[in-house]
Amino acid sequence: MGNKSKTLALLCLAIFLASVLALADGQPRGADGMVLEGGDTGWVPFPHHRHQDALGDCMACHTLFPQKAGSIEVLKAEGKLKKKAVMNNCSKCHRNLVTAGRPSGPTTCKQCHSRKEG
């Protein structure tokens, strides 16, 4: 492949990637912060946008939890989500980040759960 062909291929790739990023950036991001029902141990504040920015891949969570308000409670009520599945998913990710030496969210129960709603 000649230099002109390589340059054209790189230019096309750059335009494609810029288009993908522009489309992704224009997508709704959902709520900035949420409060998740945390069972007997209390409510859990969830900084949604902070997680989106840190992970960069919505499907890291949304393969398990649909992108719809109240979906976790619906799945629990339907018996389609095991007890503590949310907590296990979150704490596993946070512990993996700590193990990798990267910034992480809370890793203990009391760091997330609050007796106060909201």
Strand order of the largest sheet: 1-2
Largest sheet: 2 strands, antiparallel
Structural class: mainly alpha
Would you identify the CATH architecture of the largest domain?
Alpha-Beta Complex
CATH homologous superfamily title of the largest domain: Cytochrome C3
Describe what you observe in this structure.
- It is a single chain.
- The chain is mainly α.
- The chain has 6 helices and 2 strands, in the order αββααααα.
- It has a two-stranded antiparallel ribbon.
- A hairpin with a 7-residue loop joins strand 1 and strand 2 (44-46).
- It starts with a helix and ends in a 6-residue tail after the last helix.
Which terms summarize this structure?
118 residues, Cytochrome C3, 2 domains, two-stranded antiparallel sheet, 2 strands, 52% helix, 5% strand
Quick summary:
The chain has 118 residues and is mainly alpha-helical.
Task: Give the topology, please.
Blueprint: H1 3-25, E1 34-36, E2 44-46, H2 48-55, H3 59-62, H4 71-77, H5 85-99, H6 109-112
Antiparallel strand pairs: 1-2
